[in-house]
């Protein structure tokens, strides 16, 4: 994101307003060396050239979305104080902003009295949810789809709990029949449903998982680190809408504001429907929690020191973009959804490609047509490099045969997996830029694939 002069003026005016609140303090005599610092920052800028253009609509690779300029400015402003949202004396104002932001996210989810906090990201948020689940259930065993995020099994290992891998179906969703089989053989304490897998953007069948809970009495944790905000939008499939409507019936929920929530890294969030989850976190720290009888966020978080600036940036952004259906924020997500469907339709019509599944959110994955799996993978890598040479950036993802085979024309399966192309159409600007993107896609196809 580029900060223009007008935005820098807004930041300067806000910094003056902030300083006025501490005007009774003696002035600081801070030594400065403007020339040296300018040289260093110029060097930093040069080194940062060695990045992909994550901020630009021509980048459709990993799940990287630039923070909104308001979040950028609010974060920078807060960093002049560098609050720590562990204890109230480390960040009184930023702690209140965090609590308010958490309640707004909880209201979007459909919970009135949820317990939650911000954290470094989805990995820590899911780890906390699994830890609380282990402490609040009779069984530490966790079941999760093989298309879910790889860190779930790692977190289970850290917690000393068993993690059962549930097969996925041809749409990349949790296979409910295999889950039934595992539930009949194991005393599963928690089932993790993913609403928006990071590979395909698939949505697990939450409705059927809830039905199974009535018989097997497990906790339901929802990993919606990537897909959580799509609950607000109207242009989803009927299946997807139904799963999002059922989120309030889960026990815990994770979302990453630093993915679709317009925030800088790292800003994750974990919520618990039952505020009694606080008892799992209970601890005593008399040297930390001494300034107030009010709740200190460090009393209900796994991490201790946490950037108060992240809460300030999120709170400011929520003032500009409330989490409501049909609001500006929801409409921005709907732009991404329309853009990914345009890209999907182009891929589907091309004789050179096969989309793996119809996108459920704003990720589309496609294989390259070839006789063998290895040849399809090789062509995908050539396409990836040729597109990058034109400043059009995608990602590569390796998928098992079972996911790719139904839609592909591969006849020789010399490998059990295929490297495919993947686009994260996360930016609202992608809708406006899609004609240009499709034009370049056609050029790359002609240059690389049709000539092989």
Structural overview:
By secondary structure, this protein is α/β, with parallel strands linked by helices. It has 2 domains: 79-320, 3-Layer(aba) Sandwich (Aspartate Aminotransferase, domain 2); 328-449, Aspartate Aminotransferase, domain 1 (Alpha-Beta Complex), CATH 3.90.1150.170. Helix content is 43%, strand content 13%. The chain has 15 helices and 11 strands. A 7-stranded mixed sheet has the order 1-7-6-5-4-2-3, sandwiched between helices. A 4-stranded antiparallel sheet has the order 8-9-11-10. Helix 12 packs parallel to helix 15 and helix 13 packs across helix 15. It starts with a helix and ends with a helix. 46% of the residues are buried. Residues 285-291 have low confidence and may be disordered.
Keywords summarizing the entry:
single chain, 452 residues, alpha/beta, Aspartate Aminotransferase, domain 2, Aspartate Aminotransferase, domain 1, 2 domains, seven-stranded mixed β-sheet, globular
Tell me the β content: 5-15%
Name the shape in a single word. Answer: globular
Radius of gyration: 24 Å
Count of individual beta strands: 11
H and E order? HHHHEHEHEHEHEHEEHHHEEHEHEH
> What's the CATH H-level homologous superfamily of the largest domain?
Type I PLP-dependent aspartate aminotransferase-like (Major domain)
Specify the CATH architecture of the largest domain. 3-Layer(aba) Sandwich
- Describe the sheet with the most strands: 7 strands, mixed
**Into how many domains do the coordinates divide?**
2
Write down the overall mean pLDDT. Answer: 93
Which range best describes the helical content: under 10%, 10-25%, 25-40%, 40-55%, 55-70% or over 70%?
Answer: 40-55%
């Amino acid at each position: 994101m580029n900060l223009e002069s007008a935005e820098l003026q807004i930041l300067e005016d806000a910094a003056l307003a902030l300083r006025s609140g501490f005007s009774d303090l003696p002035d600081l005599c801070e030594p400065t060396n403007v020339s040296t610092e300018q040289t260093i920052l110029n060097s930093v800028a040069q080194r940062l050239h060695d990045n992909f253009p994550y901020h630009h609509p021509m980048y459709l690779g990993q799940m990287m979305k630039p923070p909104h300029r308001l979040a950028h400015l609010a974060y920078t402003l807060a960093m002049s104080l560098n609050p720590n949202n562990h204890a109230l004396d480390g960040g009184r104002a930023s702690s209140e902003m965090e609590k308010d932001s958490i309640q707004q996210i909880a209201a979007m989810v459909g919970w009135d009295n949820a317990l939650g906090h911000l954290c470094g990201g989805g990995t820590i948020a899911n780890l906390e949810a699994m830890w609380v689940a282990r402490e609040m259930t009779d069984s530490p065993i966790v079941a999760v789809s093989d298309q879910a995020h790889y860190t779930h099994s790692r977190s289970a290992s850290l917690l000393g709990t068993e993690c059962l891998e549930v097969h996925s179906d041809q749409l990349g969703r949790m296979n409910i029949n295999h889950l039934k089989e595992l539930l009949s053989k194991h005393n599963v304490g928690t089932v993790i449903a993913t609403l928006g897998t990071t590979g395909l953007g698939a949505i697990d069948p939450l409705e059927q998982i809830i039905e199974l809970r009535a018989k097997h009495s497990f906790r339901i944790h929802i990993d919606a680190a990537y897909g959580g905000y799509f609950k607000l939008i109207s242009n989803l499939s009927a299946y997807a809408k139904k799963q999002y409507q059922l989120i309030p019936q889960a026990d815990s929920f994770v979302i990453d504001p630093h993915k679709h929530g317009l925030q800088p890294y790292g800003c994750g969030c974990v919520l618990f429907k039952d505020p009694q989850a606080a008892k799992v976190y209970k601890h005593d720290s008399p040297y930390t929690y001494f300034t107030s009888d009010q709740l200190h966020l460090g009393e209900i978080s796994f991490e201790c020191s946490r950037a108060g600036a992240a809460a300030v940036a999120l709170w400011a952004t929520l003032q500009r973009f409330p989490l409501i259906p049909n609001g500006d924020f929801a409409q921005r997500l709907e732009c991404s959804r329309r853009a990914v469907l345009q890209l999907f339709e182009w891929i589907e019509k091309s004789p050179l490609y096969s989309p793996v599944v119809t996108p459920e959110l704003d990720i589309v994955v496609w294989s390259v047509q070839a006789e063998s799996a290895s040849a399809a993978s090789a062509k995908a890598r050539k396409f990836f490099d040729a597109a990058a040479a034109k400043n059009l950036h995608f990602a590569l993802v390796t998928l098992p045969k079972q996911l790719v085979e139904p839609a592909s024309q591969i006849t020789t399966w010399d490998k059990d997996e295929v490297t495919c192309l993947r686009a994260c159409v996360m930016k609202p600007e992608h809708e406006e830029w899609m004609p240009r993107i499709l034009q370049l896609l056609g050029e790359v196809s002609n240059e690389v694939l049709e000539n092989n």
